[in-house]
Design a protein that fits this description.
The chain is mostly helical and 910 residues long. The chain has 45 helices and 7 strands. Among the domains are: 173 residues, P-loop containing nucleotide triphosphate hydrolases (Rossmann fold), CATH 3.40.50.300; 50 residues; 75 residues; 74 residues; 60 residues, Winged helix-like DNA-binding domain superfamily/Winged helix DNA-binding domain (Arc Repressor Mutant, subunit A, Orthogonal Bundle), CATH 1.10.10.
Length: 910
């Protein structure tokens, strides 16, 4: 005989919605939202019964407030009964589960990787019968589990899996932005409240009945539990908020229990009993000899495990709140012993059980922080490190742990908390500890862009450690050195760089090889870059031993020597994990570097999306420096694509923030964006002036990171403005400085610059051949296309139209693919001149700008370029460049066709 379906009052519409959920074809996710005690759990029970009757397999879990900082504890509850299906998964998905559930060491996978693994596991489990996942008290679910369930819930369409999550209205949760369908569970109507009271408490006197109805205000749990207590003189109803009223109801029962029973209840409550059947690397506390509490309707028996569990989450909360601090500490101490093999869970209880400084407990908390960081719990790591500092037995240990906590907080986007931790370690009248300087300088740099103040702090702290610290390399010293190099890089100032290198040189063998790589690449690649590419590639051989921020810095070094692309998938996985698990500063920097690598490789649409995501993260978290950096690079990309209005808007925003602060690294990028915009527009005079703002022709400004990367831009701008001698001198300076030996990209553009400026055809042909046949040429499509274009133009003038086509055709195709509109127009115009009938791309045809139209009108009237320039205060060369772009927009090839073409556009406009 089938079990009866639970009877409810006043929930007809909600029951219909839930019944439709389990009978509908295809998977979906739904949130039940309502206040505590409103009946969400009862609706979930009803749903589970309906689903079971309909042939579903039902999996249930519940969030526990005490475990909300333990990564993946909630996900384990859900998946524990399904893990036997893992044999059907591939090795990668099994490895993802091993990493987060403690089967093996390793970094936590990204939300996407783990989410896909979970989807595959659910698909396997649901292949024989539909699956229903029910989560109660979802507001207490740990962050990483919530992120994964959010990912999974948005991808259930077409599956045989349903997900239902109950949330309290009054508590914020990570599911608030999950974009799931919602079902609001409101308090019962007055009529339904009366009906429920009459069913469950028909004997109530009219006065008591009115009081209960008035105080319960439609809350079903209050309607059920208040009546037996109303006559108790110790119970005060009036003016007490509902959750507290219910806690008083339970409190009256708990107070009458034997002390031993109350201790058992407290241990169970603090360990989350009743929130699920499984837990990572262990089980929950099993309460014993608590039949008395069961008799009082505080506990019930789990039908699966046979263990006692709390009848309602509010009972757990009441048990904890009624205990004294000493009672809670004693319970935590017992639980720490119970979970002695679980590093993180033991740490949770030790932190709460210990009052006086205890070095062993502090060390255990450090170990747990390291473990939870690897598994994606930066916020929990900060809390444990802070608690470890409080329990340290000496000032040195306290300072070190506070410094570590502040360091992790800074990388987790918790800048305010990081600053508070720094201040808590500062004693008036004494020097700031080096560990605090690390965070203080990081915040100074990222929030304010104050490179000089940060530089002074770091130099002093490194000097202190050098003179009084250990003689071997240490983590704190290494972090200080790396940050010093980052500060110097953003400053882009020769004096600061030379001072930084001098300080680090004084450390001798205490400066680690990785740090020395950063110093060489980020300072001046022309002066210090010999052999760095090989050192970077060797360092990536040991990447498994590096922390996420170290991987990020190494990738940044690799980018500047064109060795980063093979490692981009590694950084993409790291970026997703860091952003989703809380290490936002590291994650947004990873995204920024990914964007630069995508830009270089020609994945421009992806680069724009990645750069915008990095900018949004930096802006939302208050990292002004990183936001400025993203704007500058997005401006450069927009300029290369010819989106000049966006480019100049972003360039102006970045430059106005960076230039007053002396951030040479960023102002060089904004100057590079200005150069690229001018080149796209054909304003070569402006391009030349922007370029020489970074480095003069014939040399490479020391410690100007953008100087060698601007080689092709400066040479082209110089050639188009008649500065042939300066262009040649600069190309020769690149060759003599050994740029081709530093990186493939620098080799490509050096050969291209030498070819463009070669005085005789033999040298030009040789250099063009070296550039166009370079093994890495395809990895830098924009630069290679520019070299093809220049080669085609030269070939058309010296050899005729036919030989030029082999160079102009791939140039036009590449520019079109990249979306570099002005460059594509230029290449198509040259192809027409070479006798190839090419129509302008429909995506590039558009309305002439006001300046272009005015120049075209004057030219159609018979004025020369010089006369037009005098009228419009432009150089004749700039006028010619504008006409060069006007012709393909109007689909013409000669000046004589201008008048008719302009007449057609006027007719279309009309």
């Amino acid at each position: 005989m089938e079990p009866p379906v639970t009877t409810m009052v006043g929930r007809g519409s909600e029951q219909e919605r839930l019944t439709a959920l389990v009978t509908a074809a295809g998977g979906q996710a739904l949130i039940l939202r309502g206040e505590a005690g409103v009946g969400k759990s009862t609706l979930l029970d009803h749903l589970a019964e309906q689903a079971a009757r309909g042939g579903h397999e039902v999996m249930r879990a519940a969030g526990v407030e005490a475990e909300s900082g333990l990564p993946y504890s909630g996900l384990h509850q859900f998946l524990y009964p399904l893990l036997h299906h893992m044999e059907g998964l591939d090795d990668g998905h099994r490895a993802a589960f091993d990493a987060v559930f403690g089967g093996r060491d390793g970094s936590a996978p990204s939300v996407m990787s783990l989410g896909i693994a979970v989807l595959d596991l659910l698909s396997l489990a649901a292949s024989k019968q539909p699956l229903l996942l029910i989560l109660d008290d979802g507001q207490w679910l740990d962050g990483p589990s919530a992120e994964v369930l959010g990912f999974v819930g948005r991808r259930l369409t077409g599956s045989s899996v349903q997900l239902v999550i109950a949330l309290r209205t009054e508590v914020r949760s990570r599911f608030d932005t999950a974009a799931f369908a919602e079902l609001a569970v409101a308090p019962l109507s007055h009529e339904a409240s009366e009906q429920l009271l009459d069913l469950r408490h028909p004997e109530l006197a009219p006065s008591v009945r009115r009081l209960v109805l008035d105080q319960a205000r439609g809350n079903p749990l209050a309607l059920l539990d208040l009546p037996p207590q109303v006559s108790d003189a110790t119970f005060r109803l009036h003016g007490i908020p509902l959750p507290r009223r219910l806690q008083h109801v339970y409190g009256a029962r708990i107070e009458h229990l034997d002390d031993a029973v109350r201790r058992e209840l407290l241990r169970g409550a603090l360990d989350g009993v009743g929130a699920g059947t499984g837990f990572t690397r262990g089980t929950r506390y099993r309460m014993r000899d608590v039949e008395e509490a069961a008799t009082c309707d505080l506990l019930e028996v789990d039908p699966v495990s046979g263990d006692f569990v709390f009848r309602h989450p509010l009972i757990r909360s009441t048990v904890v709140q009624m205990a004294t601090p000493n009672q809670r500490r004693a319970a935590h101490a017992v639980l720490a012993q119970v979970h002695h093999e679980d590093v993180e869970r033991r740490a949770t209880h030790l932190a709460a059980a210990t009052v006086n400084p205890d070095e062993q407990v502090a060390a255990a908390l450090e170990e747990a922080a390291e473990s939870v960081t690897r598994r994606g719990g930066s916020v929990a790591a900060v809390a444990w490190l802070t608690r470890a500092a409080e329990l340290s037995e000496n000032h040195e240990g306290r300072s070190r742990r506070l410094g570590d906590a502040a360091f992790v907080a800074g990388h987790a986007g918790l800048l305010d908390q990081a600053q508070r931790l720094v201040l808590s370690d500062t004693v008036p009248g004494k020097n700031v500890p080096p560990a605090s300087v690390l965070t203080s300088a990081f915040v100074t740099l990222t929030e304010d862009g104050d490179v000089r103040s940060a530089h002074r702090q770091l130099v002093a702290a490194i000097g202190t450690l050098r003179d009084s610290g250990p003689r071997e390399p240490g983590e704190l010293l290494t972090r200080l050195v790396n940050l010093l190099f980052a500060v110097s890089s953003y400053a882009g100032d020769r004096a600061l760089w030379e001072r930084s290198r001098e300080v680090v040189h004084s450390l001798g063998d205490r400066a680690l090889p990785l740090s020395l790589i950063y110093g060489d690449v980020w300072s001046d690649l022309v002066l210090h870059g010999a052999g760095v590419r090989e050192r970077v590639q060797r360092a990536f051989g040991e990447v498994a031993d590096l922390e996420p921020w170290e991987v990020m810095m190494l990738f940044g070094a690799a980018f500047y020597v064109d060795a980063s692309s093979p490692y981009r998938p590694l950084l993409e996985r790291g970026a997703e994990r860091e952003v989703e698990t809380g290490a936002v500063a590291t994650g947004m920097n990873m995204l920024h570097l990914i964007m630069l690598d995508q830009l270089t490789a020609g994945d421009w649409d992806e680069a724009e999306r990645t750069g915008q995501r990095s900018l949004d993260l930096a802006t939302s978290r208050g990292y002004a420096l990183f936001a400025c950096h993203s704007r500058a690079c997005l401006a450069l990309l927009a300029a290369m694509r010819g989106r000049l209005e966006r480019a100049r808007e972003l360039q102006a925003a970045a430059d106005s923030w960076a230039r007053p602060r002396g951030l040479g690294f960023l102002t060089q990028i904004t100057d590079a964006a200005g150069t690229a915009a001018a080149l796209s527009e054909g304003d070569y005079e402006a391009a030349y002036l922007h370029a020489i703002g970074i480095t003069p022709p014939g040399s490479f400004e020391p410690y100007a990171h953008q100087a060698p990367r601007m080689l092709l831009d400066l040479v082209e701008a110089a050639l188009h403005t008649g500065r042939t001698a300066q262009a040649r001198r600069h190309a020769l300076a690149a060759r003599d400085a050994g740029l081709p030996d530093l990186s493939p990209r620098l080799a490509l553009i050096t050969y291209g610059a030498l070819a463009m400026t070669a005085p005789d055809e033999k040298e030009a042909a040789e250099m063009y051949a070296r550039a166009e046949s370079h093994p890495a040429g395809a990895s830098f499509p924009f630069e290679l296309a520019r070299i093809h274009l220049a080669h085609g133009i030269r070939a058309r003038h010296t050899q005729g139209p036919r030989p030029a086509r082999q160079f102009l055709t791939p140039a036009a195709e590449t520019f079109e693919r990249l979306g570099a509109a002005p460059w594509a127009e230029r290449a198509r115009t040259e192809l027409r001149a070479a006798g190839v009938p090419v129509r302008a791309s429909s995506s590039q045809l558009g309305t002439l700008t006001w300046q272009e139209r005015r120049i075209a009108e004057l030219a159609a009237g018979g004025l020369t370029n010089k006369e037009i320039g005098e009228r419009m205060h432009l150089s004749p060369r700039t006028v010619g460049s504008h006409l060069y772009r006007v012709f393909p927009k109007l689909d013409i090839t000669s000046r004589a066709a201008l008048r008719d073409a302009l007449g057609k556009t006027e007719g279309q406009d009309a």
